Sequence to fold (299 residues):
Amino acid sequence: MKLLEGKAAVVTGGARGIGKGHCEHLVANGAAVVVNDIDIEAAQALADALVEQGGKAIASAADIGTRSGCESLVQACCDAFGKIDIMINNAGVVRDKTLVKLEDDDFELVWRIHVMGTFWCSQAAARKMIEQGGGGAILNTTSGAQFGNFGQTNYSAAKGAIASMTYTWALELARKGIRVNAIGPLATTHMSATFKDADKMPYFDPAANGPMVCWLCSDEADNVTGQVFGTGGERISHMVQPHYGKTVIREGGWDIDSIRQYFQMHIPSEFGAFGVMGKPYPFHQGVKSIAAEAAKSKG
Fold:
């Protein structure tokens, strides 16, 4: 018996790249799949190919940027396969600009597709899973960009929100037998092509994320929930949940004078790398305006 035999899954953004790999691995492991994508021709072509290979698949162009689209997507899975067991939120979009150049429309679009789409799809799927009574699995897609990435205010904010929703939903849905995890995938896709120096980066097969996704959605992983994993390439990396680091206690609390006296003595040495590239913390000597420093040197 295959690992996901008898299970029904939805994959958003499933026609290409990472999502396509998810769909292929899900079907290979016995699941029936709804291939959801804004490009219905590509979604239908993949669904047809999966059926030709002996699998079960249908295509959907439901708009996950709307509540009605997400609800109709989940219903399409139930209509086609009788239920939904797996919800994989993979669809995404990027509109990269620095903070001072970012416009509302670009922020709103990225937030709506990543965060609201993930929320609407997961809510609709969870409600169906609860109604069915057999539990299920929700798999979200976050990114190392949540640690901070130059030019990606909207995207990094969205991915951080998705990680936080993953932690929260895992707590809320555990008693219903629904597990919620997320991956931060490594892959060469049309989205990664927008990154700075993308042409200098090595190629990472998008489909290499599929095996871990399938396992996380299987019954074998029933002890794994509320976790985020870096996947793709040759890695499986546990993305540690945010937590408090070094803490300094002062009896009676802190006033401005005691902060000025003790903070620089005890805390800055704890500052770790930040930014998706993980470079050493660069600001131990202070954050200074390049223009202001240049003017000061001329003065």
Summary: The two ends are 77 Å apart (CA to CA).
